[in-house]
Structure formats: C-alpha cells, structure tokens
Amino acid sequence: MRVLIGFDMDGVIIDSDNPAAGDWFRRVFTETLREFGIPQTEENARALYIKNMRDNAEAFCRRFGIDDPHLLWERREAHYVSEKLTALETGMIALYPDVVALEDLSREYPLALVSNSPQVVVDRVVSHFSLADIFRVWIGRGSSLEDLSRAKPAPDLLERMRPPLRNARLLRRRSARRRRGRPRRIAPSDPPHPQWDPRGYPQPHRIGRSLGAAHEIEGLNDREL
After folding, report:
1. Which of 33, 67, 89 is the last residue of a domain?
2. Has residue 65 been placed in a domain?
3. DSSP one-letter code for 189
C-alpha cells in the first residue's frame, strides 16, 4: 500500500502569496479593470478572483456593460500569467527553503503538485526551480472560464493525479531497464533510503501539515504508480 502526498504550490512551495514579494498580484487586477474602464476598487478586484468569476462572472459583466464574460476572463488570465512569470524570472517569487525536506521524502513516497495556477505557470515553476526530481506529477488548472468550475476545492484536479502517476511510473521503469537492465520494485517493506534518517526529519504526515500538503491519497499500489 502506497500513500500519495499532494502539495499545493502557492504559499506552500513558493512564496507567491507574500505581499512583500512585489506588487505583481495587484497589477493583475488593476490592469484588467483599467482595460475595461471599471473602477479600480478592492471590491471590483476581488470580483476577478477565481471563485467570484466562477460564480458571478455574468452578473459582474452585466453591471459594467461587458457583453462577453469570456473576454474579461481572457484578459484577466493573460495579465495573471504574464505578471506571475515575470515575478518568477526576476526573483520576486522564491522557493521556500523548507522544500529541501521533500527531496528525501520523495524517495519514500510519491509526491504530486496540484495548483489552481494555470498549467503553464506550474510547468514554469517546476522547470525554474528544478523540481521534476521531487514531484512525480504536477497539475495546474486550465485557462478557460469553464475550467474554473474544475479548480480546487472541486475534486477534478485531484482526480487527475492518478493517471499521470501511472504513466510516470511506466516511464521510470522503462528508463530503469535502459540504465541497469531491470528496474527495482519498490515495496512497502523496503527499508528507508540510507540518506533518510527518521530521527532527523518529520514523518510524512507532519511534513504535510507543516508545509501545507493539501491531500493524501491512500490505496495506490506500485502498479498504479
């Protein structure tokens, strides 16, 4: 029996929720509102948050004479991706130092990254910080207005973790065959990795709480991973 541990990204793996990291987040909303001639108030900025756009996009657009809610969301999304990637590349968004603990944890448990950020942003974060050796799979949301209904806390992104993990496991096995003839099957009874001292690191469920791990999925065996 294996346990899959899923982590959120923003405010857990990267410090993108830190107001001191720059005003990129505020610009996403002020620039979107400015483009449509909407007063740049905090109330109107909050209306562009994922939950509010998912639930009230049409009402908000009617209030300000916008014919197509999809157009408003497309511009909001474009600003979000552009500003966040720029903040990432310029160092305004950094990796939390605690993430180093996950390097050892990933040798004992499959880890996943599941975020309400767009997939293109999640991909760039993984590439920028070289996280592909820690996380078996990383999943972001789609970029359309309809995709917001599948963002967390809806279960859709979490359910997507299982099939990619199966594919990742298959690729690892093929790679192992090429490197050393036969892959080693990881069984629950295998001893811990020699570099992982349980006395020196928190147990997985404690790391999950301290870093804000969003989900643990039990019942995944080696064949499924």
Report:
1. 89
2. yes
3. T
- Specify which residues 10 forms β-bridges with: 14
Domain that holds residue 192: 2-15+94-220
Q: Which residue has the tokens 């990637």?
A: 85
Same domain, 71 and 129: no
Interatomic CA distance for residues 55 and 50, integer angstroms: 9
How large a percentage of the chain has pLDDT more than 70?
68
pTM of the complete model: 0.73
Dump the DSSP string for 70-85.
HHHHHHHHHHHHHHHH
Domains: count for the chain: 2
Bridge-partner residues for 3, per DSSP? 218
Per-residue pLDDT tens over the stretch 125-161: 999 999 999 999 999 999 999 999 999 999 999 888 7
**pLDDT tens-digit series, residues 68-126:** 999 999 999 999 999 999 999 999 999 999 899 999 999 989 999 999 999 999 999 99
Ranges assigned E (strand) in the chain:
2-7, 111-118, 137-141, 213-220
What 3-state DSSP class applies to 204? helix
